[in-house]
Structure prediction request, 412 residues.
Amino acid sequence: MNLPRIVITGVGLTAPNGNSLPEFRKCLLEGVAGIGWLDVRYMGKLLAGVCHFDALRHQKKKEVRVGTRAGSISIWCAHEAIADSGLLFETFPKDRVGIYIGCTEHGNVETENEIYAISKFNYDTKYWSHYHNPRTVANNPAGEASLNLGITGPAYTIGAACAAGNLGLIHASQMLRLGEVDLAVCGGVSESIHTFGIFAGFKSQGALATHDVPAKASRPFDRARNGIVVSEGGCLYTLERLDDAKARGARIYGEIAGYGVNSDASDYVLPNPVRQAECIRKSLQNAGLAPSAIHIVNTHATATTLGDIQECEAIRAVFGEGCPDTYINNTKSFIGHCMGAAGALELAGNLPSFDDLVVHPTINVDDLDPACALPGLVLNAPAKAGRVDTILNNSFGMLGINSTLIVKRFVA
Prediction:
């Protein structure tokens, strides 16, 4: 069956170390991390990745006040992606645009804030905000973007834990191929740093990173790694069918080549390397590619002791020793774990490799854990590749949801 080819035509993002793809990429190549200290309610100063975009570029003050942080991130990224695509959005039929945004969790921030606010008034609910319900519904990030941009097509979020960023693109590709929409705004967002619950949860699991130097706190694969740095962020793309993109002369970043999605069905938190390997193989089969045809593998590794090892086991099982042209890197070492936005941001950071043939490194690896040693692992400094035609992006999440997305160099 000849399915329509789906291509990436625009990228909009905000990360702890950049508010555009050029700025983000520059930091990845120069080893600039975006981790700092954040004052977290009830817990004090903790390490976190904080974004610094200007929400008022695309929103009024009242919209920011009434809406959510995840909504502002979505609106920023959507506007920036559409502008980057070069599409004449003003005249584009808004009912033919779909918004598909992956999100790890939503609503915790607003509920925590409201409980804290009414605690000052003896928990009298008359002080509870009447905006609470629309702020906390699961479709809020996509819904706020729809309201802001006047998009009347389908707009909803996809809950897939930390695999959600990839799932946003995967689902969008499917909807475009089905003819449900003609333009998809898709990817992932996260507001996680604004809820103390996620910090408390990781701390109770012994999985929250600590380090005296913030920029060195997120250290996947390093023997001294000690947990996750929680971060906010977002990355949305414009996806189109190739024929539509060509018809308007769009610049094309890359083509969706294949994907895999599966579930571990084995544990609430602990990943399953066998299922992860199956997900990677499924994406390769879907793309019609052999492991040796992949040039960059962006790992999900979050800098937890066991999680990094198990993903390395999965990668080793698929790629083995017979893939001399495959480079392996990690983006969380720069920005921490952006949860639902992680997969989408990490893909974006590697897309420029199609043009410059440079693979950004994993930083903060001072003492490589032997259990994480992999052929082609790029550490602490960029690597120059002979060719970059394919990028494989791993994103795995709690409750055993796995996603792998493959993007290839566009060839007409």
The chain has two domains: 6-247, 258-408. The mean pLDDT is 97. The first strand starts at residue 6 and ends at 14. Residues 69-85 form the longest helix (17 residues).
